[in-house]
Amino acid sequence: MKAVLVSDTIILLLALIMAVASSLMLPVACGRFLRLGGIESEPSAVPVLVAQQYKVAIVDHAEKIPSGEVPSEFVEIASQRYQVTLPWAGHRLTARVSEVQPLLVSLPRSVIDGDGSIYVTKATHRAFLEMSVMAVADGVPLLVDSGYRSVAYQKKIFEQRMVAAGDFQSISRWVAPPGYSEHMLGTAIDLSPSNWTFGGTKVEQWMEKNAFRFGFNQSYPRHSPHGFTWEPWHWRFVGDS
């Protein structure tokens, strides 16, 4: 008799457990459905994200938004808000001043065109001087016209251009908006002369042939896939990449 009662008790307990599990539908090994508090849902699948599809490293840990569906981007110039359009939209840089400035060193006067100091990162400084030695040996001295520029300095350039020459969209065809200039990375340089007369010079020809050996790349080539205006004088140190 006791055995029957124990058996019946076990059966009742098992039935109770099954009923509770059925009502809750607690996730088991496959974890497909959840039903808690009377709400049933199927958790949406979370795909493994491939980083390169969503962000592309530029240099020095800076990133750009992927091409394709580019969200609206804005910059503030002289207390006015302007929308950034192509080709700059989607290419905002994220390098912070606090990360870049400690890495900066001044280029020697012998490679600077004009007065003042020009700063670049230590790695860029070392690579450029090595490249300069080879260029001088080939009879083509390299002079730098511009190096590191902070976002604040780039904003001042834009403000001056807008006062002198016109609207935001017209100027952004030729000048990178604040936050979009590679000069804020400390790895970009403008060689002299930093204008259209640079094209076709011996310096440009030498750079086209030899710059890659020292880790320098022309950021805005003649036929840019992103639609940037050609800037033959603008080069960026990218290292071995």
In short:
This protein is an alpha+beta fold and 241 residues long. It is built from seven helices and twelve strands. It has helices at 2-24, 51-54, 97-100, 122-137, 151-165, 168-171, 202-210; strands at residues 34-36, 39-41, 56-57, 63-64, 73-77, 80-84, 104-106, 119-121, 144-146, 188-191, 216-218, 234-237.
Can you tell me about this structure?
The protein is of the alpha+beta class. Among the domains are: 2-41, no CATH class; 98-148 and 186-237, Muramoyl-pentapeptide Carboxypeptidase, domain 2 (2-Layer Sandwich). Helices cover 31% and strands 17% of the residues. The chain contains seven helices and twelve strands. Strands 9-10-12-11 form a four-stranded antiparallel sheet. Strands 1-2 form a two-stranded antiparallel sheet. A hairpin with a 2-residue loop joins β1 and β2. The longest helix has 23 residues, at 2-24. It is globular and about 50 Å long.
